[in-house]
Design brief:
single chain, about 450 residues, mainly alpha, DNA polymerase, domain 1, hpI Integrase, Chain A, 3-stranded antiparallel β-sheet, 20 helices, 8 strands, elongated
Length: about 450
């Protein structure tokens, strides 16, 4: 049986096993740490398996070892040192990588990684040693998964392919770094992805959705459309999180079919203020709550809302009934973001309300929708430039008529701006304006 031992004088690990009746000890350069021990233990299992099968190739596993050349001569191999062990297979190192990485993962992501490894990555790459996975093997794997069928029998998307390749690259890069190898994964570029389509609702559509949705889901839609909560965050709200005295509520958990979990990121744990409509929605929901139920939004049986059932039985039928373009419920979050920005809220405040750590996503995703909502496409900038950089100085008295006419036109288009302009006029200019206004007998 192959065993992993530590050399006292150096603190490094070595492999101790029997081959053809001879005790063999192969030294590694790995220090005695839990992660390194798992790597060498995986190698030991592989050596033992090959010896049992009768297919063990000493030179392939330990190419730099003098033992490989002298084995047939029956020499004593106990003193040979410095051999570099063969690289583990992708399957072997992936288990080490999962064990070390899983404490940082949420349970749902851990399940995704396990399923993806077992169904897709390991069948294709699992038996290959890390040093045998080159650019060609990775491109072949990418081509192979691109032929898989996605949802509804459609071709798998570039986004999905990139996600699978990213997982394979992460494992390969880490394994190659530990074993002194060059990872071919670093030379591969991701496929070009189609830009994610963002379709926020207009304010009129928001009013329509809230008015026409089934009454027992009206508070739920109101809160999601006006606060930008993610699906899991809204479904995970409990009454202990809602503070009516301070007009706010806490986002501290999520809920899905896999159970309760933590918010997506640390910045997702946040306090969200309640505007009047949101407060009213919470009060209506509380008035019809199932007695003893801790969940804010729940089914008639007192269970948390099931996101899949809501989407298929409430959300999509509502959109079709109203003649609106069908889109996932997540676009309610996009809607809240665009409405907040269109109202002139500070982007940093909006980012904090949505649970973003920076404003980068706001400007990258939502900013292009704001001009259409405010109908203020560059007008503020144009007005500033006209006021400060107009080469023609304002004329006075009798020659001031062009400027007065412009002011009168502005009054017709924008009463607020006109009133401000009138306050800055001289008595002569004000008289000229009044002369332009038609009088009725």
């Amino acid at each position: 049986m192959a065993k992993v031992r530590v050399r006292p004088e150096t603190g490094t690990l070595y492999l101790d096993f029997q081959f053809q009746g001879v005790r063999c000890r192969e030294q590694t350069a790995l220090s005695d740490t839990p992660s390194n021990r798992r790597v060498v233990e995986a190698l030991a299992k592989r050596v033992e398996r090959e010896i049992t099968k009768g297919s063990f190739d000493y030179a392939r596993f330990f190419p730099n070892s003098p033992r490989a050349k002298r084995l047939s001569a029956g020499d004593d191999f106990d003193d040979a040192v410095g051999a570099k062990p063969a690289a583990p297979t992708f399957s072997e190192f992936s288990e080490v990588w999962v064990t070390e990485s899983s404490p940082r993962w949420r349970s749902r992501y851990a399940a995704y990684v396990r399923t993806t490894l077992d169904r897709i990555l390991l069948p294709a790459l699992g038996d290959l040693p890390l040093d045998k996975i080159g650019r060609g093997e990775l491109l072949g794997f990418q081509a192979q998964i691109s032929k898989r069928s996605g949802r509804g029998g459609q071709t798998i998307s570039a986004k999905r392919i990139n996600k699978l390749m990213m997982l394979a690259k992460s494992i390969l890069n880490e394994g190659c770094d530990r074993h002194g190898l060059t990872s071919a994964a670093r030379t591969l570029k991701p496929l070009k992805q189609k830009r994610t389509e963002v379709m926020p609702f207009t304010l009129e559509e928001v009013q329509l959705l809230i008015a026409r949705v089934r009454e027992d889901y009206r508070p739920y839609l109101t809160v999601r459309l006006l606060t930008g909560l993610r699906t899991g965050e809204a479904d995970g709200l409990q009454w202990q999180d809602v503070d009516f005295e301070q007009d706010c509520f806490q986002v501290v958990r999520t809920h899905s079919r896999e159970g309760d979990g933590e918010p997506k990121t640390q910045s997702s744990i946040r306090t969200v203020p309640m505007v009047a409509q949101v407060r009213e929605a919470f009060l209506k929901q509380k008035a019809h709550a199932v007695p003893g139920c801790e969940w804010v939004f729940h089914s008639r049986q007192g269970n948390p809302i099931d996101a899949v059932n809501f989407t298929n039985r409430i959300w999509y039928p509502l959109l079709r009934n109203l003649g609106l373009k069908v889109r996932p419920p997540y676009h309610m979050r996009h809607t809240a973001a665009t409405l907040m920005l269109a109202a002139g809220e500070n982007p940093e405040w909006v980012a904090s309300i949505l649970g973003h750590s920076t404003t980068e996503m706001l400007f990258r995703v939502y900013s292009r929708f704001v001009p259409n909502l405010t109908r203020n496409d560059g007008m503020a900038f144009a007005g500033l430039m006209h006021a400060r950089l107009d080469p023609k100085p304002p004329l006075k008295s009798a020659t001031a008529e062009p400027t007065v006419v412009a002011i009168a036109s502005a009054a017709t288009a924008d009463l607020t701006s006109a009133l401000r302009a009138l306050q800055s006029l001289t008595p002569e200019q004000l008289a000229a304006v009044m002369a332009l206004i038609p009088h009725q007998d």
